[in-house]
Specification:
alpha+beta
């Protein structure tokens, strides 16, 4: 790929200097597409105003993506720019030119910051003058603290919570761009499937839910976000101090300038929104260039697949199926991804799967729609998805998006092979 340009599913190149789409010319980066010429234009992006902040306490490998828009302001936004589509981002390489005799800046007088620097010097061999210089550049993110201190909703849940949640992710545009992502990276996705056993549509769906296929990686400087929560939010200080430690080790290992990576308000990074500890544990160099870079779609694909594989994804296994019910007995049963019921017990309660089930013990999942409760049965691979984000809604959204993306991709592929206009197939 040419320096400063990004591979786009629509067959355009984005020049970061001019920030304008240019039609692809010449032999570089030739690729086939399943889409008609009329559709091979940069799509204007718009997202519903019903945007979601994932609950902070659910963060595992992923994270939500508010964007810093002012000196302290943080808002949940959909894309870097609705007009130009996905902007390729790469953290700067090199350790950075940081050096100071003593701490300065926003955290100069924080005992916790000084103790953290001491530990990094003593335990990991960092230069004290380097860390003093680096942390003198850290900026406290008041907008991040504002998000964390927002009061949680109280009272009984309103009916239709699943419908509202699902509608955020199951949009025609997100499904279509997922099909485009699968087309563009089909070789890498198939290689990940062969190596890790995770189907391409599930890798794609994770990236689609987390960052809109790289369109919304976040704009908060990761170092600033992690330091802010570690040093200014006591309730989660222990966890985020550990993540800050992992982040500095990660940037040293991968050769990134620590002030360069951007991500979510909680420090989640890349197309798959990995926290630093998950980055170090599960990220892979899937393009073989010697660096794990989760802002690179190829490395992100391999890393999401590796994450699922490491958490026990069963190749060829089912994920979830809807269930019918003939009584309200399910209301007294334990539900959620941690629940376990035998099929026999469920049958006695009038609950029956509407599709194939590859296990005798399944999770009973209850979702509130505007038309009443909806029941699903989750198998082992459903539980694996919840290791990415501990939410039954999240896991089912990923599953349903994966199924729709695959369906649309397969139809468009058939249309391409038959020479049919892809708009007729979708």
């Amino acid at each position: 790929m040419e320096t400063g340009q990004v591979r786009r599913p629509t067959g355009y190149l984005l020049n970061r200097a001019g920030m304008q789409y240019q039609p692809r010319n010449g032999p570089a980066e030739k690729r086939s597409t399943y889409f008609s010429k009329g559709e091979n234009k940069a799509m204007s992006r718009s997202i519903s105003t019903a945007l979601l902040i994932m609950p902070f306490f659910m963060l595992t490998a992923c994270g939500s993506n508010p964007e810093k828009t002012g000196s302290n302001a943080v808002q949940v936004s959909s894309l870097d720019s609705p007009d130009i589509g996905v902007v390729e981002y790469r953290p700067k390489t090199g350790a950075g030119n940081y050096s100071a005799f003593r701490l300065g800046g926003d955290y100069a007088n924080y005992a916790a910051t000084r103790q953290f620097v001491d530990r990094m010097v003593d335990q990991h061999g960092f230069s004290r003058s380097y860390l003093n210089g680096l942390f003198s550049k850290v900026e406290r993110q008041d907008g991040v603290l504002e998000i964390l201190n927002r009061p949680s909703a109280k009272g009984p849940a309103r009916p239709g919570s699943w419908t509202r949640y699902r509608n955020i992710f199951m949009t025609e545009q997100r499904m279509r761009e997922g099909a485009e992502f699968m087309t563009t990276y089909r070789k890498e996705l198939n290689r990940a499937y062969q190596q890790y056993g995770v189907p391409p549509e599930y890798i794609t769906a994770i990236i689609g839910v987390e960052t809109y296929y790289g369109g919304n990686i976040g704009k908060v400087t990761v170092l600033d976000a992690l330091a802010t929560i570690a040093f200014d939010y006591p309730r989660r200080s222990k966890y985020f101090t550990s993540e800050l430690e992992q982040f500095l080790l990660m940037t040293r290992e991968e050769g990134f300038d620590p002030k360069s990576p951007v991500g979510s308000y909680a420090g989640a990074m890349g197309l798959g929104q990995f926290m630093p500890s998950s980055f170090r544990r599960y990220a892979v160099d899937f393009d073989g260039n010697g660096r794990r870079d989760l802002w690179n779609p190829v490395d992100a694909i391999g890393s999401v697949a590796n994450y699922f594989s490491a958490h026990g994804w069963q190749k060829g296994g089912e994920v979830a199926v809807p269930a019918s019910f003939s009584s309200t007995g399910y209301r007294s049963m334990k539900t959620g991804y941690k629940s376990k019921h035998s099929l026999g017990t469920l049958r006695k309660a009038g609950i029956r799967p509407k599709g194939s089930v590859d296990s005798d013990r399944v999770s009973l999942l209850k979702y509130s729609t505007y038309d009443g409760d909806e029941l699903w049965l989750g198998m082992h691979n459903f539980y694996v998805i919840t290791r990415y984000n501990h939410s039954s809604k999240y896991a089912l959204a990923v599953h349903q998006l994966a199924q729709e993306v695959k369906r649309k991709h397969d139809r468009l592929r058939v249309a391409y092979e038959r020479g049919t206009d892809s708009r007729e197939a979708s």
